[in-house]
Amino acid sequence: MRGERNAPNHRVLLLSLGVITLAPVLLLLVRASASTWRYPALVPSQPVNDTVRTLLFTPTVWSALGTSLLLAILTGVLSSAFAFVAARALARATLTARRIAVAAAFLPVIAPPIALGVGVQIFALQAGLAGSVAGVLLAHLVPAAGYLTLFFLGVFSAYDFAMEDEARTLGASSRQRFVRITLRTLRPRLIDAMLLGALVSWGQLALTLLVGGGVVRTLPVELLAFVRAGDDRLAAAAAIILTVPPALAFGMLQGGVRQSGATA
Questions:
Q1: Nearest alpha-carbon partner for 235 in 82, 37, 51, 84
Q2: Across the strands, what pairs with 34?
Q3: Is the pTM value of this prediction over 0.85?
Q4: Residues 87, 182: contact at Cβ < 8 Å?
Q5: What is the mean pLDDT of residues 65-70?
Q6: Do 207 and 114 form a contact (C-beta atoms < 8 A)?
Q7: Among 16, 28, 52, 257, which residue carries the largest CB count within 10 Å?
Q8: Radius of gyration of the chain (CA)
Q9: Which of the residue ranges 9-13, 55-59, 120-124, 192-196 would you say has the lowest mean pLDDT?
Q10: Per-residue CA distances from 33 to 28, 53, 106, 208, 236 (Å)
Q11: Closest Cα partner for 132 from 211, 75, 187, 188?
């Protein structure tokens, strides 16, 4: 009976959460489809549907989208490779070493982006990478590697290293154990990690501006440019485009979790 009485409250909470989550997206869709929407009007006065066409014929948007995709893919792959190797070694290290590594991995995760960006910017300037895609990639790798190292530490805490030890006693080489056992067993988690690393890069703005210096134009940077120029319509449309890859990645991650749960 108590559960039945609480059911309406749960529905209200879920409905409220849905409204809070979807309302900003719906407002972006409405603003992107309206040429003018001025205070205090509650609805747009002049709806229009040429926003997407305007963005498609804006070369800077295409260039920024390509740069963002390139940085996201490289960040996802490189940070996953680094974090995989580091977490695998730490999983078999001493407890003290693991604690130190977890603290080091937490630092770029919990540090304010502006503080982290200043440190990376100084290094990029010294290395001659400031204002370049390589420098921005380096900046994106720092927080992504921190996130994914913590991710893989959790993965390897549940991983059974006895399978590799048994294969070694049967004469399998290091390469054979890595390819046929480790990679085959953890392939779903590697895919998840690459998606997570790509998402960390995809939404980066502060690090991109600090290290890229406004020369490297990603989609978040172009979105900020539209906002500064006062073009709310294009800014809303660019924001919608910016949310599509994370939504797709979230769907893929959810599908992977369900599949792994079903096959477990």
A1: 51
A2: 47
A3: no
A4: no
A5: 91
A6: no
A7: 28
A8: 23
A9: 55-59
A10: 9, 11, 41, 29, 9
A11: 211
Cα separation, 160 vs 254, in Å, equals 24
Q: Give the position of tokens 């927080």.
A: 143
| Per-residue burial over 18-44, b = 16 or more CB atoms within 10 Å of its CB, e = otherwise | eeeeeeeeeebeebbbbeebeeeeeeb
Query: Which residue blocks in 111-218 are alpha helix, DSSP H?
Result: 113-127, 133-157, 162-169, 174-177, 184-202, 206-212
Coil, strand or helix: which one is 35? strand
Q: Token pair for residue 166?
A: 């048994």
Helix (H) or strand (E) holding 172: none
User: What is the model's pLDDT at position 264?
Assistant: 40
Average pLDDT value over all residues in the chain: 79
Angle, CA 235 vertex, CA 21 and CA 249 arms, to 5°: 50
The predicted-structure confidence for 205-244, as pLDDT tens digits, reads as follows 888 988 988 889 998 998 888 878 777 777 777 777 888 7
Q: What is the CATH number of domain 51-263?
A: 1.10.3720.10
pLDDT digit string, tens, across residues 19-60: 777 777 766 666 666 666 665 555 566 555 555 556 656 778
Residues 164 and 172: their CA atoms lie apart, in Å, by 9
**Residue 76 to residue 148: CA distance in whole angstroms:** 9
Mean pLDDT throughout 106-121? 80
Averaged pLDDT for residues 159-178: 80
Strand, coil or helix: what is 153?
helix
Cis peptide bond upstream of 112, omega within 30: no
**DSSP annotation of 144:** H
